[in-house]
Amino acid sequence: MKTFIPRDHDIQREWLLVDATGVPLGRLASRVAIYLRGKHRPIFTPHLDTGDFVVIVNADKVGVSGNKLDQKSYFRHSTHPGGWTMVPMRRALTEKPEWVVRKAIWGMLPHNPLGRQMIKKLKIYSGTAHPHAAQNPKTV
Q1: What is the average pLDDT value for the chain, to the nearest integer?
Q2: How far, in Å, CA of 67 to CA of 55, rounded?
Q3: What is the pLDDT confidence band of residue 3, given thresholds at 50, 70 and 90?
Q4: At 16, which helix (H) or strand (E)?
Q5: Interval 23-81: pLDDT, tens
Q6: 85: number of CA atoms within 13 Å, CB side?
Q7: Helix and strand numbers, DSSP H then E, in the chain
Q8: What Å distances lie between residue 128 and 10, 27, 56, CA to CA?
Q9: What CATH number has the domain spanning 13-139?
Q10: Which residues face 19 on adjacent strands?
Q11: Could you tell me the residue ranges of all domains in the chain?
Q12: Most distant CA pair in the chain, distance
């Protein structure tokens, strides 16, 4: 039995619409990462991008469990002396909720050129309106 390697014409990409209202952030991120990688398809191949496009709406209404809003913070450093910044999750969710959701999903994708290609298929919006209605996304 030979190993099946999908070609470009074998990969049929779909557009999926995910409503993040009340969904816990980690569960949303893991599910969306599966769709972006293509692990839900029988033709999944780890070294190829066989995933779908994913549109997330209502990112500002994503659920967070426990005390994460007060205890979790995001750290970044500018590589200059004294250039560190800590942003609490509560402030990050109010100022830029799309960034918080994208960061959670990126943490569950491969950190290599293939993962960077997959994250480009992710579209995140704070409200319910999105410009991808012409692609007829399926609701997940």
Answers
A1: 96
A2: 28
A3: confident
A4: strand 15-19
A5: 999 999 999 999 999 999 999 999 999 999 999 999 999 999 999 999 999 999 999 99
A6: 10
A7: 5, 6
A8: 32, 20, 9
A9: 3.90.1180.10
A10: 57
A11: 13-139
A12: 59
